[in-house]
Design goal:
There is one protein chain. The chain is α+β, with helices and mostly antiparallel strands. The protein has 3 domains: about 90 residues, Beta Barrel (Ribosomal Protein L25, Chain P), CATH 2.40.240.10; about 80 residues, RNA Polymerase Alpha Subunit, Chain A, domain 2, CATH 2.170.120.20; about 45 residues. The protein is built from 4 helices and 13 strands. The strands form 3 sheets. It has a 6-stranded mixed beta barrel with strand order 1-3-2-6-5-4. Strands 10-7-9-12 form a 4-stranded mixed β-sheet, with no helix packed on it. It has a 3-stranded antiparallel β-sheet with strand order 8-13-11, with no helix packed on it. A hairpin with a 5-residue loop joins strand 2 and strand 3. The N and C termini lie far apart (about 135 Å).
């Protein structure tokens, strides 16, 4: 791929009014940090969009050509882009000047490859605990992303920062024991127990009152039976 480059103009005026004027004119304000901290420039918005689209990746390094500057050619990387919260228009850029012979620290996204067997066969849940890592390396060695194979993971398995494959000259700064992905067991739905029927207050009272009444009735029946037996005995005695 041909080297990416874009022209920029040094800004002599600052403030919100100047920034709005630049945007109306089809430009976007930016600040270049690095060898000369706080250098304010403006870039052509349409060409900037084309550049970022061509780069197609984060941490892309391109050459910034400054009009009218003695040190006009600078290698820079986009550190931050500010967008309008509603329209999404590009409002401001922070650029960082780099030396191709000096290591820098950047964030690199992770890419997960494959479908874990614990998800495919056992219904497990894949948890992404880390989406990017901090790496330190020379600008020319910055990877577009770091791939991690996860297809062999079973339920209960996890991969950590120490498991990330990186090329020589690239150093990951995150804690090696920090988990990157894990496979957890599927959630078990608890079956709700049927609610016990609670008698209404009146019904409970009626039930409590009915029990002694029933017992009293049985006793009366027993007394009648005993009386009849006595009558029979007396009749036999007369005979």
């Amino acid at each position: 791929m041909a080297e990416l480059e874009i022209s920029a103009q040094v800004r002599t005026q600052v403030g919100r009014g100047d920034s709005r004027r630049l945007r109306r004119a089809g430009a976007v304000p930016a600040v270049v940090y690095g060898r000369r901290d706080g250098l304010r420039v403006s870039l052509h918005l349409k060409k900037l969009r084309e550049l970022l689209s061509t780069a197609g990746r984060t941490n892309a390094i391109f050459q910034l050509n400054l009009d009218g500057e003695e040190y006009s050619e600078r290698k820079v990387i986009v550190k931050e882009i500010q967008h309008h919260p509603v329209s999404g228009d590009m409002l401001h850029l922070d650029l960082y000047e780099v030396s191709m012979e000096k290591e820098i620290v950047v964030s690199v996204p992770l890419r997960f490859m494959g479908e874990p067997v614990g998800v495919k066969m056992s219904g497990g849940i894949l948890g992404h605990l880390l989406r990017e890592v901090e790496v330190e390396c020379l600008p020319g060695r910055i990877p577009e992303f770091i791939s991690l194979e996860v297809s062999q993971l079973e339920i209960g398995d996890a991969l950590h920062v120490r498991d990330l494959p990186v090329q020589e000259g690239i150093r990951i700064l995150n804690d090696p024991d920090e988990a990157v992905v894990s496979i957890s067991a599927p959630a078990v739905e608890e079956v709700a127990k049927p609610a016990e029927e609670v008698p209404v207050e009146g019904e409970a009272a009626e039930g409590a009152a009915a029990q002694p009444a029933a017992e009293a009735g049985k006793e009366k029946e027993k007394e009648k039976d005993r009386d009849r037996d006595k009558e029979k005995e007396r009749g036999k005695s007369k005979d």
